[in-house]
Here is the input.
Amino acid sequence: WKRFLQITGSVTLFTVASGVTFYYLARKDRTPGIQLPHDPTKKTLVILGSGWGATSLLNSLDTADYNVIVISPKNYFLFTPLLPSVAVGTLNPRSIIQPTRYVTRHKSRQVAVIEASATEVDPERKTVTFADTSEIQGLVSTTTVPYDYLVFAVGAEVQTFNIPGVRENACFMKELEDAEKMQRRFLDCLESAAFPGQSQAEINRLLHMVVVGGGPTGIELSGELHDFLEEDLKSWFPELANSVHITLVEALPSVLPSFSKQLIDYTESTFKAAKIDILTKTMVKEVREKSVILQKPDKSIVEVPCGLVVWAAGNKLRQVTRDLMDKLPEHQTNKRGITVDDCLRMVGTNGSIFAIGDCSATSYAPTAQVASQEGSYLARILGQIAKKDELELRLQTLQNQPETEESKTEIDSVAKRLVKLEKLRPFRYSHQGSLAYIGSDRAIADLPFFNGNLATGGVATYLFWRSAYISTLFSLRNRTLVATDWLKVKLFGRDVSRE
Ligand code: FAD
Ligand code: NAI
Here is the structure.
């Protein structure tokens, strides 16, 4: 009895302590405090975007140093690694987004959040023009603001290579609405296949899902589609489940070129067991309403009937990025993106524009990991720059005053401190490894390990994948929502109702 009471007491104490801590943290998140107002003596920092780079910067930035303006067509941050889970209904769309105001309202100084798309940056006059591109607009829907420093973090957009029919007939997997659209279309295909009197050939067509692109996005999405089929469709559409067929098309000789050979083989064998067809060395040449046109390795062209095509064939620069680069033709010639120096300053802009994430061309892969490390690095650099700017102003004031012994000593001291602040530490990326979910409760991971690499795949890696992503989510709110969604799906399965 004594032992039993001891254990029960400890469990109760632990539960109450966790509950109180959770309540305290949630309450803190929910009730932002009073913020410093706009300060006309501070410099203006404009941040374009609310994705990985911009949000990581905002999280770490001391906004007391600047008057900060965030401009983005999305007033939220999207946790892209879990987007494929939204597409099959494992996660609720709202669980993986974080309103940008939830971040900015907790900062020391007020931050202006503007839902708009930047349409033009003028590096000469140091201005940004932006427009409200949403459905509803007020009397003013486009304007221009000046900046002292600009952080360009607008990411990239889907690359279609101008292949006919892609935009019209395929779904993308880049934004939240893409995942929602894919889910709707997928369920529509199922319901249409279940329509009475449908021929077997038409059922097969409607239930043939083609994923284009064997990069991590295409692989994760195929894995999620397979899970949906195995875990839910077999229960709710038993008569159709055997007709569902997933094909992954990749132009290169293998999928996941950025992962090690061992993990590529593991993924291919997992897909084979899951009956997901991988067609490598095969190019999609056209996407039609009811089929895809493929160029096979022997260069022959075939038309393959299908119900749904998901286009995950990579990204390209946004128009606003290309326009900005075109304004600095001598310095910005890299087709992959904005050329930056070691401190992420856009070359040719005298340190007034920084570029981070997928819109910049660095030696690192365009990933969330890189963008978020660049964001937090930039927060430190901008803190240092703010101190330097303040000291420079102080030095100017002192130099304009009549010289005294006291002012001479202060000038010396300020000048010394300025020299220290002049040198910015360059950005260094620290690779934490690559992770990808491949379906069937399995994940793969390429992890840096004792100066080497650890390539691992399987169920344990899958649990690691889940815990890594839960801990990477930016807020307690998102962590709770995602964990609850996972539990809900385990208990009740995915929702197959079509909105
Ligand atoms: P984004 O996060 O795309 O943010 C760009 C921001 O700019 C957005 O808020 C956008 O609304 C805004 N914007 C767009 N146009 C304008 C404009 N004209 N003016 C102002 N703002 C604008 N990477 C990993 O490391 N691990 C993963 O597991 C992983 N999984 C992924 C899964 C999917 C499905 C996808 C699509 C990507 C995944 N990535 C992953 C890649 C990762 O999402 C990107 O590398 C990362 O989002 C880049 O961050 P960013 O800040 O440059 O751009
Ligand atoms: P990607 O560029 O990595 O892969 C796209 C693939 O599509 C390429 O392999 C390309 O050969 C293929 N392709 C292009 N055109 C084609 C065509 N016409 N027919 C057939 N195949 C075609 O794009 P993805 O997967 O969207 O990834 C983008 C970035 O995001 C990458 O840097 C990636 O590392 C990162 N990412 C990382 C994830 C992770 O670490 N778990 C998950 C998702 C994305």
